[in-house]
Structure formats: structure tokens, C-alpha cells
Amino acid sequence: MEALLHQLLAGLATGGIYASVALALVMIYQSTRHVNFAQGEMAMFSTYLAWVLIQAGLPYWWAFVATVALSFALGALVEIAVIRPVRNAPVLSVVVVFIGLLVIFHSLAGWLFGYTIKQFPSPFPSDAWYGSTYMSPHEIGAIAVTLSVMALLFLFFRFTPLGLAMRAAAENPVSSRLVGINVSRMLMLGWGLAGAVGAIGGMMVAPVVFLDPHMMSGVLIYAFAGALIGGIDNPAGAVLGGFIVGVLENLIGTYVVGTELKLSVALVLIVLVLSVRPSGLLGRTIVTKV
Asked: How far apart are CA 61 and CA 100, in angstroms?
């Protein structure tokens, strides 16, 4: 029973990391109706920026804040320079652009920082009082960070004029333009926020999987599965789905298929959700009259 409890809680910890990346995926999808396949590589690149700042002598939390700001700017720049010109292009063209971004960020990270695995520090001391035999301080801290980010985003989108404008631009761009909302600027801010949220997820996962250009490849698949399970158009559903995937991956991978086939759990979940309930647990089913 103790081993089962440990696997369950460890799954919640990794699920918190998947939830962060899933949240970034949902934010992009809400704005553009496209899945950003480069989200994991952008988060990885942002984590390298944090590592450079820490190696330069900046305290962790100052490096954390600076990385979030830089990642926001990076996400906004990608939207302006790469996504905006192909906004009205066919879906297949946009998918190719996202794949191109994935390859670019992956190759750029390897070129600038090398492919040697590096250690990334955890902001949570290993002997912190909130640690236990079932969950390490970093695992508990990662969950707390994910839930805090979700709460801040909820308050931002629900109670601030800018957040409401961003929601309106994502829901109905035409009507938003008619009432004076700059839709292009809102989309740019959405990409910036997604970049910042993805960077937080990258900094939380790096102490666990270590830092290298390949570190987010599997995480992105788990996060995508979480976003689909919870609802690709629902931020709260993405967080819930991330936790569900983390728990299922840990339990099934440990007790059923083995660690070598853990990634297949996410792929099976993606197929099941798309087959049974494409809108996800908390997603909306959109019916179009023709």
C-alpha cells in the first residue's frame, strides 16, 4: 500500500509539470485554434536561458523572474515574426511552420549550449520541512507552482480588462474588432503568456530529467494528452488532464507495462480521447449548423 501511495503522489508531482505545458498549449489553441508543436522546445530553450543566468551568478528566483520575462518576449516575437504572416494560411502550412519552429529551437539550443546533459538546480531545498517520504520538496513545490500559475491566470482572464479583451479576441475576433479590440495585439500577448507559462514548466521539470535539448520531447506528448483529456479549449481542464496523465502514466508504467513503455500510455490516452470524447472532460462540444 505504501508503494502504491508513493507512486500515486509521484504521479501527481509529474502531472503538475505536464499541466504547466498543457496550459501553455491550451492558451495557444484558444487564440489560434492550432496546436503549437514547438511549445516543448520553446520551454526547453527558456530553461537554458535560466541556466545561463544562474551560472552567471544570479540568484535562482531572480533568474526565474528574468526567464519568465524573456520567455514572454520570445513568445510575442515568434507570434509577430513567424505566426502572424501565416495566420490565414491553410492548416497544413501552419503545421509545417510549427514543426519548423520545433527543429529550429532544438538545433539552436544544441548549437549554443551543446548536447551534454547538465544539472539544473531546484529552488526547493532537499531538507525542507514540507518534504516527506512519499514526496520530495521539489515535487510538492512543483505542484504548488503549477496551481499558483493556474490561479493567477484565472484571476487575470476573469477580472482584468486586458484578460477579458484577450478572451474576447480568442472567442470572436470579428466582433472584437468591431468594438475596438486590437486582435493582433491580443494574440501577441497570448503567445507571450504561453511562452512564460511554458518556461515555468521547463524550469520545474529540468531538476528531475536534467537539462539537455531532448528533455521536453516526452513531456510535450504527455502534456498534449493532458490537454486533450481535460479539454483543449479549457485551461482548468488542461491542468486537470495533466494531473490525470501523470498519475496514470506512473501507475500503468510501474505496475502494467513497465518503464520502457511508459510513453505509449500517453499515446493510447490520446487515441482513446479522440475516439470517445474529442472535446475532453471539461471541453465544449461545438455544433455548427449548416
From this structure: 32
